[in-house]
Amino acid sequence: MIFESHAHYDDEVFDEDREELLRSLGEHGIGYVINVGSSIENCRRTLALTEQYSFVYGAMGVHPSETGELDEENFAWLRAQCAAPKIVAVGEIGLDYHWQEPEASVQKKWFERQLELAKDTGLPVIIHSRDAAKDTLDILRAHGAEEIGGVIHCFSYAKEMAREYLEMGYYFGIGGVVTFKNAKKLKEAVQYIPMDRILLETDSPYLAPEPNRGQRNSSLNLPYVVQAIAALKGIGCEEVEEITSGNAKRLFGIGQ
Ligand code: NI
Hints:
Layout lengths: L1 E6 L10 H8 L4 E7 L3 H13 L3 E5 L11 H10 L5 E10 L7 H18 L3 E6 L2 H10 L2 H4 L1 E3 L6 H9 L3 E4 L9 H9 L5 E3 L21 H12 L3 H16 L4
Parallel strand pairs: 1-2, 2-3, 3-4, 4-5, 5-6, 6-7, 7-8
The structure holds nickel (II) ion (NI).
């Protein structure tokens, strides 16, 4: 059984066949999905999906690139939603310096506020960090990230950075990029990270793995990610599925 730890099925590119696609996941071995919020509107839609599908859980958070929309009023709304029954994380939150929009000071402010929100609610965090390795780590440390717990989504840094997050007790979201031929750094990191810290994710509709690179992604592509991890670790695909599912259930407190 595969646990999909990061997807955006509320995205409008799924409007035409969302119901059919989500209903088909079970028969393809996908047992759980975390639908991850990225803006206030996406959080609203995520909540609806968690109510509609028994196997869909949600994360409430605003992506760094969307933090320009946050104010005290919608932040209070976000806080209240964290108490909903199937909300299991705060995310995705973090820093994205690849797109310096909004400016770094705004991203940092709301990253810190959302980390505090996670601490207050007792939920783990789903971290988005792009071209911002040092600032992400500094802010996490300053806010007692070890106690909060969480996953570094779409981990894209090298082994050295993996070591820092391992020491903080964090998990690593590994997705389609691990199947790319040029992802040498990430493949090395995956070999280095212990199996009990890896989660499977797609970031659907983005980052489809080989051989479907460039197409709309969905959890149905996760077996390609499983195969890539199994090859790097020298273990079987079933073992990869089993261990990563156990990891996700432990982190998000599902089915324990
Ligand atoms: Ni995402």
